[in-house]
Amino acid sequence: MGSLRKVYSGTEYKGFVLLDKVRLQKGKVTAFYESILDGVYRLAVDSINSEMVRPEAVMLSFAFTDDFFDYQISDLVARLRDKFRKVGKGRKKASVFKLRYLWVIETKYLTPSDPEYEVSLTRSEKAVFRSAFQDGCPLPYPHYHMVLILDGHKATWSAVRKLMQQYVDEGVVRPGFHFSENWQSKKKEMPLISESELGDYMYRASYLAKTDTKDVSSNRFWSMSQ
Predict the structure, then answer these.
(1) Which residue has the higher pLDDT, 89 or 24?
(2) How many CB atoms lie within 10 A of CB 73?
(3) What is the pTM of this model?
């Protein structure tokens, strides 16, 4: 287990920039768990070397409701896979590509100024969180970050959004789930074709490997597809 929690403090990983002036100034990313960082890298390389026509990565953050706190990520992924299957009248479903993914669980202590406080909590929860914050005892807000590798030739991030909205409507996932996007282009997809695109992916997806806000007391705070 110790190797899974080995900290990596370099500014580059396998030649790709992870920590630049922007991140260092914000102070939200200071170091990485090397095992997760390696998983992020292998996820991309395996997808590039797979039969995917146009591998693309998307990053998603979300939280389960209290009633479904123990909901299995594997069940979420299985249901997502089902959306990416060809369905025809009188025909069996056939998998169109192997969905690859990596998830981590993080803990954040919400303040009334955080966007999650406004969009993710119920009215009664807001009152509890606000009272705890005012008393100097902020409450933990566990949530997930996930990177998914899709074949852009056969699936889009909007299909993931539709499923997540269904989960919200069913009361499984809290409102306010969010897709990461490029701050300039606003695109949510990260293509994995060229070296520069892989560099952009490594910079953004390495966020999942950051040590900040991880609760490593949990035996299973991250996992990935095999």
Answers:
(1) 24
(2) 15
(3) 0.91
